[in-house]
Structures are given as C-alpha cells and as structure tokens.
Specification:
- The complex is a heterodimer of chains A (about 350) and B (about 575).
- Chain A contains 8 helices and 21 strands.
- The two termini of chain A are about 40 Å apart.
- Chain A has about 350 residues and is of the alpha+beta class.
- Chain A is elongated and about 75 Å long.
- Chain B is mainly alpha-helical and about 575 residues long.
- Chain B has one domain: MetI-like (MetI-like fold), CATH 1.10.3720.
- Chain B is globular, with a radius of gyration of 25 Å.
- The chains are: A alpha+beta (about 350), B mainly alpha (about 575).
Chain lengths: ~350, ~575
C-alpha cells in the first residue's frame, strides 16, 4: 500500500485559520492517528485528504499520485482517490440493505455479479456481519452499523483507510471491543490507516504513531510511548493522560547529568535529569501521576522528597487516585497501594521530571 | 469518584407543576382541528342527500342527487378529463420538481442558489394571472403560439387536456420543489460523500443515493399534486370550458352558477364523490409510504456539504436548460401579463406600443379593486401565521405524542385539500347559516373568508411539517423530555426551533396560497369584503383583461415584498464552522 504525504496544508474559514501549515506522512501499513480536541483541525485535515474539503495551500499525495497541489492546481475529485472512508455518523444508506450498502462500491466498479456477491459476503464475514446481509440499517445496532460502514470502506481494497471518530457513537464496552477488533483487522490486512479521534486512550492503544494537533497546528509526531513519556509541549502533556505541571526556576547544573531547580509553589529544591539548562531560566516540569512515589513514613531515600497531606482519595478499581498538597504544591498521584493518611511523604524521581520548553 | 466537600443542591423548583395536563393541551389542539375540518364538510354531506337546499322548506332525504350526477354523461366526460389532466400533471411535475430540487441543493450547478428562489416563483404568481399570461403567450392566437406550432413544430394546444396539463405542470413544479428541498436540507450530506469516496461518479450518487432517499418526499409531493390537480378550477374555467373540455370542478361550478333553482344538491353530491376519491388516495399513500423510520439516519457530522460535482460542461448544460425552462414557464408569461396591464388590448396583430395606456392601473386604484387588495393582505397575513402555528402543533401531536386520538390527525389535516375549494366555500356558507353566532359575524366580515381559505391551506402546511418532522430524529425532543421538559416545552423550545426552516417555508407557502386563492371565497364574499382573486375572476368573466392583469401584477408585487421581508426576518443565523 502507498503512503500518504501531507505537506504545508493551510485552510481558512472566514476569519478563522483552521489549518496552519500541517505536514505529516502516513507510512506504508502504518496506523497513524490524528489526535486533538474538537476544533483542532483534525477532521478538516482528514476531509482534505478524502477530497471533501479543498485546502487553500499545500499538497497531498498518495504514493506517486498527487491528490492535491495548490502550486500546480491539481485537485483530484473525491470519487477518483480510491480511499476507504468511514464517517462518524457511519452514513449507512437507509434505502439499501446491508448487502446493498457493501455492494455499492463494487457495482460502481462494474464487478461481475458472481464475483461481487462472493466479495461482499467475504467482507461481511471479515467484519462478522455475514448473517445480516438482508437487513436494513434501521434494524441494526450502532456497533453493527459501524461494522457495515467499515465493510463498505474495505470491500474495494482501497489504497488507504480513513476513519473519522468511528467509535464515538458506541458505548464504552463496545468501543473497547471494537478497538481491539479494528487493530487486529488492520494488522492482519496490512492496511495503511489514518484515524481521527479526540480520545487519548483510543489513540494510545491503536496507533503506531500519533500526530497531536491543537488549534490547526501539529504539536508533536511520535510513537504512543514517545508522546506520552516525552511530551513536546504542556498541551501534549496534559491532553494525553493526567499530568502534574510544576513551575520552577533553574538554579544550577549539577555534576552527575542533573540540574538543580527551585519549585515556585513551595520554594523547595528539586533535582531533574538533564544538564543543558541555563541558570535563572523559568521552566515547567511535567510529572506523570504514576511516576510519583508515596510512602507513609519518612523516606530514607534522599532527593526530591517532600512531606505532604492527603486531600482526597478515589478508588478506581485497579488503583487509587490521590489528591495531595506538599506545602502548597498540589499534586495528583496514582498508586496501587492504599495509604493511611493524612500525613505522607512524596518522592518525585529525577528521571520522572520532563522539562517542557517555555 | 473524587470525594468532595461541596454539596450540589438540587435546583429550586425541581418539581415543575404543570398548569394544564399535557393530554389536555393535546386534546384542545385535536379538537380545534376537528371542528375546523368538519365545519364545512358535515353541512355539505348533509346537503347532498336532501331534495332541496338546506334553507328551503319541504325537503326530504333522497339519493336523487347522486343518481342525477352519475347519469349525466357530461360528468363522466369531466371526470375522464380530470384524471387525464391530474395524471400528466403529477408525473411531469414530480419528475421535474424532484430533479430541480436535487440539482439545486445537492450539486455545484452554477446559479443554483438563484434557481432555488426562482423555482418557487410560479407559486407566488396569482393563478388567474398565470393562466391569462400563458393564454396571451401560448394560447390560440397568442404571441408565441405561431412560433411554437409552426417554427418549432410542437403541437401545443393550450385548450386541450394535455395542453392544460402543461400549464398545470408549470404551476405544480414549485410545490414539488419545495417539498423535496425541505427534505433534502434535513438529510446528512455524509450519505452522499460516502458514495463518492466509494468511487461513485456524480450522476451515480444522485441517481442511486440522493433520489432513492427522497422517496417519501416524492410520494408526498405526488399525492399533493394529484389532489391539487383534481380540484383545478381556474385552468379549465379560462381555457378548457369555452372549448367544451370541462373538469369536475368546472363542471360543478357551472352546474351551480347556471342552475334554474339556486344551490342544487347535485353539486354537493359531486363534492362528496370527490371526497371519497381523496380518502382512497390517502389510504394508498399510507400503504406506499411504508416505514419512514427507515429514512432517518444517525445524526452527526458528515463532513462539509460540498455537493456533488457535476463537471464543468454538464453543470453548465443543465444550468442552461433550467434557465430556459424558467424563461418559458415563468418569465415570459409574467412579461406577457405585465404587458397586458399597460395596453388596452394584447394582440399579435397590432404592435403593443400603439395601444399603451395607464387606464388599467387607474381603474384598480379605486373602489372594489383597492378594497380587495387591503382585505386580501390582511387575510393572508393573519391566516398564514395562525394556520402555520396550529398545523405545527397538530403535527407535533400526531407524530410526537402519546395522545390517544393522534392517528386521526393526519387524516383530518389531509382532508381539506381533498375538497374542491369552491365546495369548502359552499360548506362554510351553510355552516355560517346553521351556527349563528358566530356565523353571522363571520359572514359579514373578512374573517369568514379567512377561515375558509386557511382551512383550505391546512394540508399544504401539513405536508411541509410532516416531511420535516420525518427528517428530525425523535431523540432530539426525547432528550428535552428527559431533561424534565413538558411535551409543550420540548416541542416549542426544541423541535420547532430545529424545524425553523420548515416553519418558515410553511408560513410563506400559506401566505402566498391564501393571497392567491379565491375558489372558496366565491360563495362567501359580501359587498365591501371582496378579495383580489374574486374581483379578478368577476372582471375576467366580464371581459376586462387589462385591470385583471394590473391586479395580478399588484399581487405579484405584494408577494415578492413579503418574501423579501420574510427572508430578512426569518433568515437562519449564519451557521458556525461545522468541522473539528
């Protein structure tokens, strides 16, 4: 399967700049996710690739085919791009049966009747909907409609699969199952897939790589581990999972590849990994809640330990969520252990602190 | 989850007291519709089985009027003409109106926005004026008749039944267009985008996705046009009757106006027969339409509503064809009408600039002509507004309530259109005589006419509202009810605002329909309370063409003004950005 290249995409709606110089590549057989809050431009980007939105500037190509290039005025129509698109609303045609819906793209391609029938049933088999071929869309559940939409997008073996928040109309349990199932299918068929979502769990669990977007710009591109553990900006840190963001000032670089800082909230010193920080710089530290250690007694381990007071505890099944305060420094911490409160000691490991650019 | 010390107190007045139980509100709406619909019908049916008019002494129960009707060969000839006319008109107008609506709202055809407005134009034109305009242009001896029959070799004879159907189609297309457009605007464009991304070329998307999904609207429109065609009075009266081509309506009108004894029961019998036909049509409709739930699609973003791209050549060719159609069916007849209003006589034999005169316009500035203009506008405004609201509520009861008798409402709302307008007039004439007060007061003011014209337009509003309700998922107002809203609140605050385009369309349609309607008023008009249509018909039958054309132009002007004002008042807020 070819790869999709998006270069310097710009789009303005009236006064609003919906896309500001978007560039990324979906590699062959890759599962790439556009992740961001609503209004960040991810659907506009997807619809530009699909051919339903014409960008003002930039270029989009799929393998050696140019879909769009403002410089050379190339604009390929949506129906000529040979992409499989699944809409958020599924867009299952209400006047056709499940079979009719899935057969439609093949009829457009003038496939012979026997082959068409075989292919449709095969594809329905693939999405586990073979038993529903003669049903009408209104007789199906949301999850089933979503499978039909997927079958319809896959049946003609498109170059790339585009998915616009396909799980947002499903309930939580079904969503999780659909997620696993889609991942399997994608890996098994080796589909190059571009996925749009605002759900970070979906993005982390499905993607080979994630493109984090906000306000029409790409903030970071990387593997799920990359964007989670090494967020490029505060927005990325906070959008993907919970994150404590601590304001601090650089004091001095230490010898052992660490830097000494002072926390603004409580005036206490903190040591972080990394040494190329100029003294006097104001920075922000991102610390994941699960990286912070909690003990109920004075810790023997030196460095970055602070006495703290528990504010609240929530039980979340496989872990506890603690809200606590260390001399005015508010922290969110998760732990599998239940601690007797209210006095505890927190330790923030130097390696768990990620210095965010100002 | 996270324990919190802040308590969340329930909002004050969480338990809302309802002043009136919701079934009471619904029952009241139902009762209003029932009374309005039955008021003209019961006296009519009663009159059809009496030997003499209701006010006459010494009448007895008899079926003689029906016997008389069915043994009259003229009635059968008229019935055959009517069916032929209605069939041709319905078929042609549904094909044309549906295609135009799809082209204008789902493609990138050049000028589609302008076309969308212009296609509705023939509705706004006064029917008598249009008929006269067509007659002046395409009728025997008309301006363009020679060009069409001799140069283009099209055997157009406007006084024949197929000829009248050509005019009928031109008049009906806008109605189909409106109904289809209302339905299309409520359909998610992602359904079409999905077909395009699956590789379907533009025409294939239109033919295999858009049009099949339009089926409920097309069937709705077809039924509407068929019933409208069956009761056509103006077209046969002006064109066919003088040549002996009567329709049922003109047959009954002539039977009424030229009878030896006034108000013969045979007319009521004929109306009752038409009523039975209409009821049969309604049953067929409900069978054919099937389960509308199938046509409700899941809400959600469908991507931009870009429309199907036709390609440069095709779109310009189609645009040109539509332009020509509009020119031939609308602009040229208006031009002929306008010309008629400023000449003493419109004839191909003498150049019009030799016959220029302002006399026609001076004539309509005084007396009955001037009165009738004011009366008509007043009736149309009040009637349009009240009827839209009543029908919106009634449709809500019919489709979105658990009121026990709700299933009877669609039938009640479809009923009035099935009765020829002139018979509604007779019915109310009897009703006002029988129930007094308020009959006397209504009869001696314009409000009696308003009531009759509004009742006649109920169905029009219902077609718009029921199609529109069909495209809005019930979950919208269920959500409001779940949030604690009463039925009334969930309708007036949620469903109606969503349906605002349909309400707007309905009001405009009613205003125009009432403004241009005249058949029911023929029997209710009293001196000083004339309306434009009646004045025009009277003058036309006396052979005064010029002032009628001038009055028709006034009617056109009022309507255009009303639409301009309405568009400003009701223009939907500019839609926000739709995509993430």
């Amino acid at each position: 399967m070819p790869e999709i290249t998006v270069q310097g995409l710009r789009k303005t709606f009236g006064q609003e700049r919906a896309l500001k110089d978007i560039s990324f590549t979906v590699r062959d057989k890759e599962f790439l996710t556009l992740l961001g809050p609503s209004g960040c431009g991810k659907t506009t980007t997807l619809m530009s690739i699909a051919g339903f939105q014409r960008p003002d500037q930039g270029a989009i190509s799929c393998g050696d085919r140019t879909f769009f290039d403002q410089a050379t005025k190339v604009y390929l129509k949506a129906e000529d791009r040979n992409l499989g698109l699944v809409f958020q609303s599924y867009a299952i045609w209400p006047h056709l049966t499940v079979f009719g819906n899935v057969a439609f793209p093949l009829k457009i391609r003038r496939m012979k009747k026997g082959a068409l029938r075989r292919r449709v049933l095969e594809t329905l088999e693939l999405v586990e909907m073979a038993g529903y071929a003669s049903r009408y869309p209104h007789e199906l559940s949301g999850g089933q409609q979503q499978r039909v939409a997927l079958a319809r997008a896959l049946v003609y073996a498109p170059a790339v699969l585009l998915l616009d928040e396909p799980f947002s109309n499903l309930d939580a349990k079904l969503r999780e199952r659909a997620r696993t199932w889609l991942k399997h299918l994608q890996a098994e068929l080796g589909l190059t897939t571009l996925f749009v979502t605002h759900d970070q769990d979906e993005a982390l669990s499905l993607s080979d790589r994630i493109v984090v977007m906000n306000e029409g710009s790409v903030l970071q591109v990387g593997s799920p581990e990359d964007v989670y553990h090494r967020p490029a900006t505060r927005f990325v840190a906070e959008f993907l999972g919970h994150c404590n963001v601590l304001a601090a000032r650089v004091v001095t670089a230490n010898s052992a590849g660490t830097t000494q800082l002072v926390l603004h909230a409580n005036g206490k010193p903190i040591t972080v990994s990394g040494e190329d920080l100029p003294a006097g710089d104001e920075v922000q530290l991102a610390v994941r809640p699960e990286a912070i250690e909690l003990t109920s007694h004075e810790s023997a381990v030196a460095g970055n330990t602070y006495p703290a007071e528990l504010q609240s505890v929530s039980f979340l099944g496989d872990h506890y969520l603690y809200e606590l305060s260390a001399d005015g420094l508010a922290l969110t911490v998760t732990s599998t252990r239940l601690l007797p409160g209210p006095a505890v000691t927190v330790r923030i490991p130097a390696s768990a602190c990620r210095v965010l650019p100002p | 989850m996270i324990t919190s010390s802040a308590s969340y107190a329930p909002a004050d007045g969480a338990r809302v007291r309802r002043l009136v139980p919701e079934s009471g509100v619904q029952a009241a709406i139902w009762a209003v519709v029932l009374v309005c619909v039955l008021a003209p019908v019961l006296p009519l049916v009663y009159a059809s089985v009496q030997s003499k008019p209701i006010y006459a002494a010494g009448r007895v129960f008899t079926l003689a009027p029906y016997r008389q009707l069915f043994t009259d060969p003229a009635f059968w000839a008229a019935a055959q003409n009517t069916l032929e006319f209605a069939a041709i008109t319905t078929a042609c107008s549904v094909v044309l109106g549906g295609s135009f609506a799809v082209l204008c709202s789902r493609t990138d055809m050049p000028g589609r926005r302008a076309f969308s407005r212009l296609f509705i134009a023939p509705i706004v034109l006064p029917p008598l004026g249009v008929i006269l305009g067509w007659n002046a242009l395409y009728g025997p001896g008309g301006y363009a008749h020679g060009f069409i029959t001799q140069t283009l070799h099209v055997p157009l004879n406007l006084t024949s039944v197929p000829g009248m159907a050509v005019l009928g189609t031109a008049v009906a297309v806008p109605v189909v267009f409106l109904v289809c457009q209302a339905s299309l605007s409520g359909t998610d464009s992602s359904l079409e985008n999905a077909a395009r991304s699956a590789g379907a070329p533009p025409l294939s998307v239109l033919g295999r996705i858009t049009v099949p999904m339009l089926r409920p609207a097309l069937l709705n429109a077809a039924l509407l046009i068929f019933t409208l065609s069956i009761e056509s009075l103006g077209i046969p009266l002006v064109l066919g009757s003088p040549q002996g081509h009567d329709f049922i309506a003109s047959y009954l009108y002539n039977a009424w106006s030229s009878a030896f004894t006034p108000d013969p029961p045979i007319v009521s019998a004929g109306a009752t027969v038409l009523l039975a036909c209409a009821c049969a049509l309604l049953l067929v409709r409900s069978r054919l339409l099937g389960d509308q739930a199938r046509f409700v699609s899941i809400g959600g973003r469908g991507g931009p509503a870009g429309g199907v791209q036709l390609g440069t050549i095709l779109s310009w060719v189609l645009g040109a064809i539509l332009g020509l159609y509009l020119l031939a069916t609308t602009f040229a007849p208006i031009a002929a009408l306008a010309l008629s209003s400023v000449v003493s006589e419109l004839t191909p034999l003498i150049a019009p600039w030799h016959l220029l005169t302002l006399g026609n316009w001076q004539t309509i500035a005084h007396g009955t002509f001037a009165h009738s203009i004011l009366n008509t506008v007043e009736i149309a405004l009040v009637g349009g507004l009240v009827t839209t609201l009543v029908v919106a509520l009634a449709t809500a009861v019919a489709q979105r309530s658990r009121f026990r008798l709700r299933r009877s409402l669609p039938f009640m709302l479809l009923f009035p259109r099935a009765i020829p307008g002139l018979i509604i007039g007779i019915g109310f004439f009897w009703a006002f005589l029988l129930v007094n007060p308020p009959g006397g007061a209504l009869r001696n003011s314009i409000w009696g006419i308003m009531l009759a014209l509004s009742i006649r337009s109920l169905t029009l509003a219902y077609f718009v509202m029921s199609s529109a309700f069909g495209t809005v998922s019930e979950s919208m107002d269920s959500a409001a009810r779940g949030a604690g809203a009463s039925w009334w609140t969930s309708m007036t605050r949620i469903a109606f605002p969503i349906l605002k385009p349909a309400l707007y369309a309905s009001f405009i349609l009613l205003f125009i329909s009432i403004l241009n309607d005249y058949d029911p008023a023929l029997f209710l008009v009293t001196p000083g309370h004339e309306i434009m249509g009646v004045t025009m018909l009277d003058a036309e039958q006396q052979g005064t063409i010029g002032p009628v054309a001038a009055l028709a132009m006034v009617q056109v002007a009022i309507t255009v003004l009303a639409i301009a004002v309405g568009a400003r008042l009701f223009a939907p807020q500019a839609r926000g950005k739709r995509n993430a």
